[in-house]
Amino acid sequence: MRRRDLLAGLASVGVLGGAGAVATGNVPTALGGDTPGSGETATDASEPVDSVTIDTIDAPGSRDGEVTLPAPDRPTFVDFFGTWCPPCAEQMPDLVAAHDRIGDEVLFVSVTTEDVGDAVSEETVADWWREHDGDWLVAADVSAELAARLNVGGYPSARAVDASGRVRWATSGTHTTEEFVDGIESALDR
Prior knowledge:
The protein contains six helices and seven strands. By secondary structure, it is an alpha/beta fold. A seven-stranded mixed β-sheet has the order 2-1-5-4-3-6-7. Strand 6 and strand 7 form a beta hairpin. InterPro entries: Redoxin, Thioredoxin-like_sf, Thioredoxin_CS, Thioredoxin_domain, Thioredoxin_ResA/DsbE_sf.
């Protein structure tokens, strides 16, 4: 069995389990969850997260290529979304506003774990991105390796990681612009 197939299979189990948790409204903290709709500062941020290089998608504000997340030596904000996820679409105006306010201070990236290039076309993601006014880097974590390293179990989810690679804010559910900005600021050295 190829490593990619194994990782995709394991990721599917994690996504299905996370989807079940989201459906019940109870995303375990171990899966990166908290009370849906609320933010929580990471309390055990002692271990840096190992970076993963994933493909980016040619879409507004993005480019075709690769990105390493979390970014080495730079604060990183990662929004996990799915084109199939209504709450992900609902919160896009708040993400747009947060990006406009603070996006230059961090590497601001939205990531889908959908099987882009196979089950979902890159064009589908780019069209969704355009429709919801995304204008920053968007990427595909098709193996869900980054999602696993950041303990993502539900969608939407967000992580703010400081320049040393430590998660400083981990949350799931939808958020306001202010909640996003506060979460991102927790990863900045100010």
